[in-house]
Design goal:
This protein is of the alpha/beta class and 242 residues long. The chain has one domain: Decaprenyl diphosphate synthase-like (Undecaprenyl pyrophosphate synthetase), CATH 3.40.1180. A six-stranded parallel beta sheet has the order 3-4-2-1-5-6, sandwiched between helices. The chain starts with 11 loop residues before the first strand and ends in a 13-residue tail after the last helix. The structure holds 3-methylbut-3-enyl trihydrogen diphosphate (2 copies) and magnesium ion (MG). The site of one 3-methylbut-3-enyl trihydrogen diphosphate has 11 residues, from β2.
Length: 242
């Protein structure tokens, strides 16, 4: 078996952390217990990425569609995420990890936004790794927000529409300046993207597992990385000749 510690990427892994509810139901627990166990899986995964040389990790924690869930679950999830940020910021500092945020923070509860901004600020000088949290994030919402910001600049005469290209468009997305994910993992068995990183995953390798997010660990991550390394990414071109 190839050593997962060796080079060859992926540099940037994105994860749709799904299956917390089913994990809890199968154990006769409440959905929120599944989300709590999911927080432990986040901790493990951040550590594992550091061990395995993955520089950037982007986690889908709450989608723009997840507001449709019962208010008690939404509130509990927000609280768990705020507590996570509060408890984890020391560890992020220890590992030299900078926090990033994807999504529309305006709709977040004030406490969540305040904690988020504190940790974003505190970790802003870290350079060793990067953890992006997608919270109140939707790929379509992100594209519309980018289009609005471009339209505003065009109508104010700050941007020449004839100069708008993919690069300029990407610079208006929440992921401005970040590399696209090399690998997208979805746990929990569903094979869909559920509005995650629609623009950025144009050429991302996809990896699905039936494992519920609270059970996801370094072994699974290692397997995903090894599978990724066995793939050929052509980006629409042909393989180089022999
Ligand atoms: C993922 O687990 C966590 C969030 C979407 C916030 P789910 O809560 O979607 O778990 P399942 O899909 O119901 O099992
Ligand atoms: C995707 O999971 C969103 C997150 C993991 C945050 P969902 O559970 O919301 O996705 P669907 O509803 O099954 O597509
Ligand atoms: Mg789900």
């Amino acid at each position: 078996m190839k050593n997962p510690d060796q080079g060859g990427g992926p540099r940037h892994i994105a994860i749709i952390m799904d299956g917390n509810g089913r994990w809890a139901r199968e154990r006769g627990l409440r959905r929120i217990d599944g989300h709590r166990a999911g927080i432990d899986a986040i901790r493990r995964t951040v550590e594992a990425c550091d061990d395995l040389g993955v520089e950037m990790l982007t986690l889908y924690a709450f989608s723009t569609e997840n507001w449709k869930r019962p208010p008690t679950e939404v509130r509990a999830l927000m609280k768990l995420l705020v507590d996570y940020l509060r408890d984890e910021s020391d560890l992020l500092m220890e590992h030299g990890v900078r926090l990033g945020f994807l999504g529309d923070r305006r709709r977040l509860p004030v406490t969540a936004r305040r904690e988020l901004e504190r940790v974003l600020d505190r970790t802003s000088g870290n350079r060793r790794g990067r953890l992006n949290l997608a919270l109140n994030y939707g790929g379509r919402d992100e594209v519309v927000r980018a289009a609005r910001s471009i339209a505003r600049d065009v109508s104010a005469g700050r941007l020449d529409l004839t100069r708008l290209d993919e690069h300029t468009f990407a610079s208006r997305l929440d992921t401005a300046g970040l590399p696209d994910p090399d690998l997208l993992i979805r746990t929990g068995g569903e094979m869909r993207v559920s509005n995650f990183l629609l623009w950025q995953t144009a050429y991302t390798e996809l990896w699905f597992t039936p494992v519920y997010w609270p059970d996801f660990d370094k072994t699974h991550l290692t397997q995903a990385i090894l599978d990724y390394r066995g793939r050929r990414r052509r980006f629409g071109a042909l393989d180089p000749g022999p």
